[in-house]
Amino acid sequence: AGAGSIWPTSSNNVSWKSNMLTTFRVADFNPSAVQHFPHNDYARVPTPGVTYSNWPWAMQTGLSEGFHVLRARAFLNRPANEAPIYQTFTQTFYYDSKTPEGVLAFPATNNSTVGGSGYEMVVRTDMTVQEVWYRITDSDNDNDDAITRAQNGNGIGFEPFVDANTNGVWNTGETFTDLNGNGTYDTTLNPTWARATEVTPSLTITSSFQKEWRFTYNNIPLTGAGTITLRFLEASSSRNMTLSKEAANVTELTRNVETRGSAERILIGFPANDGDVVDDNYVMQVWFPKSLSNMSISESQMISRFTFSAQGNVQDRTGWSIDYKDFGPGSAFHQLSIPLPNLYNSALNQ
């Protein structure tokens, strides 16, 4: 039998009580069948022609996937006619009944053709997804991240990092994502992964998947085929990409595509990654094939052959310059420098 309640009327009782433990439990709690008010209120469902007191309760059967808050109160043993004295305890927990759900909206089917120098992939997921990661395998080794030094999730690469000093390599102290969970930065990773960017979904699209993510398949091969692999991660998922999808508690999708890329590739050297933070003093560095340059024309004439758009708006060429030295993979590129304009639109996080 358990000990009786101890009333903290003396220092000895307080000391004794502090070493005691009382355990309570909710027997046979079934989160998939529990009846509850999802908004933590006593709301009712408006029913025309019926008095308010007869409106049905706005209750839900079963917890929704995601975070919830459990509150408990421990009461001191007090007579019924006296004010209660209690302590409230709060615990957040994550209800995980299934892995995340989502689709690769574009390209929507296997064996679709992707072309040009880059193809923007569109992913839609449910609200539990916190991150979308992707990797690409294709028939061209020259577009691997290890060669392009860009975090495109293509082939053999390296762990993603924040290039704080913009020197193109990871340096001690720079933030990185530990994709294989070994606690150290890996300069070579096979295969590599890259993180998709969450965007604001279009209001004109009706979908059961409320979140939207995008990434670009860059440097598409001229011929052949490619495979895009996606991972949807929720709060309970492992961030170790070397684990199986079952062990990592993720959803994994694949899409096979036919590649019909451009013969001439233009690479963005810096900023190196989608989502990098820049300001209006940042100079973007674009690498273009030497075969595109014609030394018999002036630099200004060469610059006039390029167009740069920001958020769909063509920008003027003020401050642009070309460096005809060797840049990029295999030193096969020249460099176009473009001072970025002030794109601040007064909206936070855009």
Note the topology.
Elements: H1 11-18, E1 35-36, E2 60-61, E3 66-75, E4 86-95, E5 102-106, E6 112-116, E7 118-125, E8 131-138, H2 145-148, E9 194-195, E10 197-199, E11 211-218, E12 225-233, H3 245-248, E13 251-261, E14 267-270, E15 283-289, H4 299-303, E16 309-310, E17 313-314, E18 321-327, E19 333-339
Parallel strand pairs: 6-13
Antiparallel strand pairs: 1-2, 3-4, 5-7, 7-11, 8-9, 8-12, 10-11, 12-13, 14-15, 15-19, 16-17, 18-19
Overview of this protein structure:
By secondary structure, this protein is mainly β. It folds into 3 domains: 11-95, no CATH class; 102-261, Immunoglobulins (Immunoglobulin-like); 278-339. The chain has helices at 11-18, 145-148, 245-248, 299-303; strands at residues 35-36, 60-61, 66-75, 86-95, 102-106, 112-116, 118-125, 131-138, 194-195, 197-199, 211-218, 225-233, 251-261, 267-270, 283-289, 309-310, 313-314, 321-327, 333-339. The strands form 6 sheets. It has a 5-stranded mixed β-sheet, with no helix packed on it. β16 (309-310) and β17 form a beta hairpin. It is elongated and about 100 Å long. The termini are far apart. The mean pLDDT is 91.
